[in-house]
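Continuing from the previous page...

OK, I double-checked the sequence for DoxX family protein against my notes and this is the correct one:
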Amino acid sequence: MVSAGLLILRLVIGLSLAAHGAQKLFGWFGGYGLKGTGGWLESIGVKPGYSMALLAGLAEVSGGLLFASGLFLPVAAGLIAAVMLVAIWKVHFANGYWVTQNGYEYNVAILAVVAGVALIGAGDYTIAELFR
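Thanks. Re-ran it with the corrected sequence; updated structure tokens here:
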């Protein structure tokens, strides 16, 4: 049962973050792509915006896919945590905690999930287990 619960957490959080990164990188799922995201990052003082959008998108896609698969879990959690901490610091902190005010509530929830899963472990249902 624990491994099934961990699989659900990994898939939902990991694939959601990978899709979020694809919004930044490719403009998929209603995103703005690198140019649009980079411009927005520049507007809030994150420079160079295009490069930072690329790094954030790559971290979200790679971290999310690794997290979902259960591979290199500490690396995956670290990539995701880094993006969430920067988002809290640069975008959400000044707005307070609640997401309804554009606060950092959602980012903290993601941080808690990735830290918790990284500390517990990926469970039995991972890509690596398919090849054992």
